Amino acid sequence: KRPAGAPDKSLARPVSKVGVVGAGLMAGQLALLFVRRLEVPVVLTDLDQERVDRGVGYVHGEIDKLLAKGRLRSDKANQLKALVTGSVDRSVFADADFVIEAVFEELQLKKTIFADLEKIIRPDAILATNTSSLSVTEMAADLEHPERVVGFHFFNPVAVLPLLEIIRADRTDDASLATAFAVGKKLKKSCVLVKDAPAFVVNRLLTRFLGEVSAAVDEGTPIPFADKALSSLGLPMPPFVLLQLVGLPVALHVAETMNRAYPDRFAVSSNLAKVVAAGKSSFYTWPEGKPVVDPEVEALV
Ligand code: 3HC
């Protein structure tokens, strides 16, 4: 059955090579998913060889873990590893059919990357963005072929969570959207078409939720108490642990985007802003795998 809003699947173009811009954690998770489900060459790029090697190393390491768990046979694991390569030179995307960016959440950076990619990739290759909250329409605005730009928003951990928000920008055409849905289906994700609005659908709810929990902390509830209260309600993960999984700078960035878009409804949490400014990646330290509020964080919030 065709997902709601998906164009006729006969319009979809084949995807036999994938490019991933960025080789950070999100990009690595995407590369792993694409190679596992599509079994096509997946090439990662980043600013320097060290980052590229780390990204490729992450994917290879995750494939090894799947092998150790008995989820992959060794011939398949070797085949998948050989399909994942990296380069600092984006010209490796010249014959890619689908290129997704997963770089830092900065609109101008993403626009510059898309403009640069357009000089390299074929005019009908899909340009996808894994942005958490930025306007996909704006990202495509100055391109020669804005009709091939789609939002492809995954959720952390990418290998586990089934949801994929597919975002149709103002000028995305049916063939590109059909290709996005066909890829999403092969990735075995539950694809939902969402409007290109700030933070799409899920992150606006999540931002509101995490913002309210942070406000409770600002008002005096200690972090572990807030986490215990909400995890005892049956959530899969306590909110301040979830913030660490999402990435504190990403969470702050989404909150700032929402605050700009809807100042009357979204506040930027002061404790999150302070902790990010202090360069922390978590509210907790994890001695023996148990969460203990970081004393430096305690002093800040
Ligand atoms: N990366 C990859 N795989 C992971 C993982 C991670 N970070 N964390 C857990 N897993 C895998 C485990 O390996 C395990 O796989 P297996 O069954 O093959 O061995 C499976 O997930 C289940 O893990 P566990 O049994 O250890 O733990 P849980 O059952 O508690 O599940 C969880 C862990 C799936 C992370 C769960 O706690 C959860 O769903 N948390 C909420 C996550 C969430 O809400 N994410 C959305 C964030 S918003 C976002 O990403 C959007 C962005 O734009 C901000």
Structure description:
Belongs to the 3-hydroxyacyl-CoA dehydrogenase family. In the central section; belongs to the 3-hydroxyacyl-CoA dehydrogenase family. Residues 17-196 form the 3-hydroxyacyl-CoA dehydrogenase NAD binding domain. GO terms for molecular function: enoyl-CoA hydratase activity; long-chain (3S)-3-hydroxyacyl-CoA dehydrogenase (NAD+) activity; NAD+ binding. Keywords: Fatty acid metabolism, Lipid degradation, Lipid metabolism, Lyase, Multifunctional enzyme, NAD, Oxidoreductase. This is 3-hydroxyacyl-CoA dehydrogenase. 45% of the residues lie in helices and 14% in strands. The protein has helices at residues 25-38, 49-68, 74-83, 107-118, 136-140, 174-186, 202-218, 223-231, 239-246, 248-261, 270-277, 295-300; strands at residues 18-21, 42-45, 84-87, 98-101, 126-129, 149-154, 163-168, 190-195, 284-285, 292-293. It is globular, with a radius of gyration of 20 Å. It has 2 domains: 9-195, Rossmann fold (3-Layer(aba) Sandwich), CATH 3.40.50.720; 202-300, Orthogonal Bundle (N-(1-d-carboxylethyl)-l-norvaline Dehydrogenase, domain 2), CATH 1.10.1040.10. It is built from 12 helices and 10 strands. The strands form 2 sheets. Strands 3-2-1-4-5-6-7-8 form an 8-stranded mixed β-sheet, with helices on both faces. Strands 9-10 form a two-stranded antiparallel sheet. With 301 residues, it is α/β, with parallel strands linked by helices. The model has no long low-confidence stretch (mean pLDDT 96). The longest helix is centred in the first third of the chain and has 20 residues, at 49-68. 3-hydroxybutanoyl-coenzyme A binds at residues 132, 155-157, 159-161, 203, 206, 236-237, 242, 245-246, 250.
